[in-house]
Amino acid sequence: MPNSKDDVYGDHISHKFNDELMELKTEFLKMGGVVESQVEQAIQALMDSDGQLAEQVRARDKDVDQMERGLDEEATLIIARRQPTARDLRLVVSVIKMVADLERVGDEAKKIAKLALKLAEEGQAPRGYVEVRHIGNHVLGMLHDALDAFARLDSEQALRIMKEDKWVDEEYQAAARTLLTFMMEDTRNISRCMSVMWVLRALERVGDHACNIAENVIFMVKGEDVRHTPMEEAEKVVGR
C-alpha cells in the first residue's frame, strides 16, 4: 500500500501549528509548479525557436528566487517558534533542502532559455532536438512525480523516481555520444551542437534534483537518510 495514507503531519494539539505546516507544504508545491512550468516552457522555447518565450522563462527566475527566500524564512520561523519534535523537524528540514533543489531546477531552466535564445539567433542545430524532447519529457515526469510523492508522502513512488535517475544518465550519455560523433564528422556544426549538449546537461541535472527531492520524501516518511546508499538499501528502508 502506498504511504499516502500515513500522513501524520497534521495532528497537533495546536491548530495554529497544523496550519503553519500545511501552509509550508502548500507554498512548496506552488513553487514546484512554477519551476516545473519553467522547464517545460524553456524546452518549448528551444524547440520552437521562440525568443519571447525564452525571455519569459528567464524573467520568471526572480519569482522563483523570491519564493525560495519566503519558504526558507517560513521554515526557520517554524523551527524557532515551535521547536518541533523529530517527526515535524524532518518535514521542515526536508522542505528547506528541497526548496534549494527547486531553485536549482529553476536555474537550469534559465540556462536552457538562454541557450534557446542563442540558437534562435544562430539557427537551429542540425542534431539533438529529438534527444532534447525525449530526455526533457523524462525529467519533467520525474519532477512532477517527485512533487506528487511529496504531496502524498508516498515513499514507494519516491523510490521509483530514484531508480529512474540511472536511466536518465544513460540517455544523456547516449545523446552526448551521438552529438560528439556528428561534430567530428562536420566541424561547422560544433558551436550549435555544443549549445544543444549544454541543454542536455541541464536536463540531466533537473533529473538529479528530482531524485534529491525523492530521497528527502523517503527521509520524511521513514526517518532514514537514503542519500549515497545502494539502491538495495533504499528498497529495504521503503519496504519496512
Kindly describe this structure.
- The structure is a single chain.
- The protein is mainly α and 240 residues long.
- It has one domain (12-239): Phosphate transport system protein phou homolog 2, domain 2 (Methane Monooxygenase Hydroxylase, Chain G, domain 1, Up-down Bundle).
- Helix content is 83%, strand content 0%.
- The chain is built from seven helices and no strands.
- Helix 1 (15-48) runs parallel beside helix 3, helix 4 runs parallel beside helix 6 and helix 5 (155-185) packs antiparallel against helix 6 (190-222).
- The longest helix is centred in the middle third of the chain and has 37 residues, at 86-122.
- It is flat, with a radius of gyration of 20 Å.
- It starts with 14 loop residues before the first helix and ends with a helix.
- 42% of the residues are buried.
- Residues 1-6 have low confidence and may be disordered.
β-strand percent reads under 5%
Structural class: mainly alpha
Helix content: over 70%
SSE ordering: HHHHHHH
CATH topology descriptor: Methane Monooxygenase Hydroxylase, Chain G, domain 1
Sheet with the most strands, sense and barrel status: none
The CATH homologous superfamily is called Phosphate transport system protein phou homolog 2, domain 2
- Calculate Rg over CA atoms: 20 Å
Quantity of strands, as a count = 0
The domain tally reads 1
Put simply, the count of helices is 7
Low-confidence stretches: 1-6
| CATH class membership | Mainly Alpha
From the N-terminal CA to the C-terminal CA, the straight-line distance is 12 Å
Mean pLDDT: 91
User: Tell me, what's the shape?
Assistant: flat
CATH architecture: Up-down Bundle
Main location: cytoplasm
Organism: Marinobacter lutaoensis
Subcellular location: Cytoplasm
Family: Belongs to the PhoU family.
